[in-house]
Amino acid sequence: MQYDRPIILIVDDQSENRETIKDILADAEFELNEAENGQEALEFIGHKIPDLILLDAMMPLMDGFEVARQVRNNPQTRLIPIIMITALDSLQDRVKGLEAGVDDFISRPFNIFELRARIKNLLRLRESLSELENAEQVIFSLAKAVEAKDKYTENHCNRLANLAEAMGQFLGLSENDKLVLRRGGILHDIGKIAISDQILLKPGPLTPQEFEVIKKHPVIGVEICAPLKTLRPVLPVIKHHHERFNGSGYPDGLAGEEIPLFARIVGLVDCYDSLTTHRPYRPALPHSKALEICEEETKRGLWDPELFESLKALLKEKKLNSNYVLTPENRS
Length: 332
What we know:
This protein is of the alpha/beta class. The protein has 2 domains: about 5-130, 3-Layer(aba) Sandwich (Rossmann fold), CATH 3.40.50.2300; about 150-330, Orthogonal Bundle (Hypothetical protein af1432), CATH 1.10.3210.10. The chain contains 14 helices and 5 strands. Helix 4 (about 90-100) links the parallel strand 4 and strand 5 (about 105). Helix 6 (about 155-170) crosses helix 12 (about 260-275) and helix 7 packs across helix 12 (about 260-275). The longest helix has about 35 residues, at about 110-150. The protein is elongated and about 75 Å long.
């Protein structure tokens, strides 16, 4: 966890309620903090993320349901367990709480031992999720390490992730699908961590034998990421982003719609970004020339024609900055 002792935030507008909970938990190994309303709670969370929130439902200024919604909508806090302590016991109120992101409920007056047991269970879950987040961070750091080997690919993963996500937005895909595209953009070449620098950074053409080694990186990337269940939706992108629409790609020689949609998207935007950035063997190409080459390759059967038309339309109609990030007015 972030601190030696689990941090618990008690949010209740009644001071006597906060004091009661503090007395109950006083002999436990917790760091207890309190807030007397929802706004104060969010301010606290903004500078110190708790491991668990004990949240009153009915408060002035901002009720507990809105606090839960804001906590869940923030990527930095969305995994914090929330127990709502309330006198409300109707099914409608509990459904409202669940929809807001509350994990558990305790009704007043509550049982001391039940409160402690539920806190303990949710803190155990929080610790497991923290370990999972740490494992994910290690894998994403490996992807950055691959990129850092070559100064010419600096920031390539971020640009690719941004452009893939923008394509998802343009195609009307769901938030979860756009997250898969973003993660696929960052992790697509992670398997290159196992390729020697002698081959990976070779300035001249690769020999047929060296190219066979390079072609192994999608499968290696899948092997690296497969143990994490949260990354399983990204595995088809990692494995198949070098497949080509006419079946000439690798590792499986898939063709057409056999190639997963997200892999087709990442493969196409990977090509476009490579063309528009500097390489040892050529300068960065202007946008128009890069699209011209992509169009020629599409006619030769390398890229999905419909996706290429979407990429052209996206780059023409949407306002992207130099890192392919959508401007706020184009995110809706």
